[in-house]
Amino acid sequence: MINLETATYALFGGILPALVWLVFWLREDKKNPEPKKLILRTFLFGMGAVVIVLFFQKWVDILFPGTTLLAIILWVVLEETFKFVAAFLGGLKSTEDNEPIDPIIYMITAALGFVALENALFVVGPLIGKDVVTSVITGNLRFIGASLLHVVSSGIIGVSLAFSFLKPRGQRVIFAVLALILAIILHSGFNLAIIHWDNDGAMFAFGLVWIGVILLLLAFEKAKMIAR
To answer: Are 187 and 80 in contact (CB under 8 A)?
Structure first.
């Protein structure tokens, strides 16, 4: 049974790491920061996306029981799609999305909102059994792994929108769709490596994600130089 204390610890353990990452990434846009209300809205929409995704993932589990390749890909498609929807509703469709770096900020913010609630749900399991150590370890592993995976995969879409910022709308849509497909491939590969390659797969996947973080930071700097 989840009591108030357990729920509070789980939310704290899930949201706090996500907020740490959010502060880190928002510093990349400190010269012309996005309105706090839009950042908050995007973050909350990202959290809300988890609830919707879980509903549809339950149906995937029913239709395709077990960790089959198709099920894994469908889970990822749902997560990446609804993170994008959260970013779009949160800030991408607003008039504040007015410089190349902004799409990256909104995509990462939505991803971290998603991470916050998803992490809380992972942390709450051990807490219900009063296994605080396991809960802390779970939270830390997700802090350095799965959290960054969501950031990188959503960041790919943000970068595509940033680099196509001055292009016609139709081309931007094509860039976004291609980036979404790439994000799904990366995310699916991460999950498959963790599931099927054990420790070696985990090391490879985490290494790949950290390379993605470095490339994302470089993309931030490049986006800042795109002339409006």
So the answer is: yes
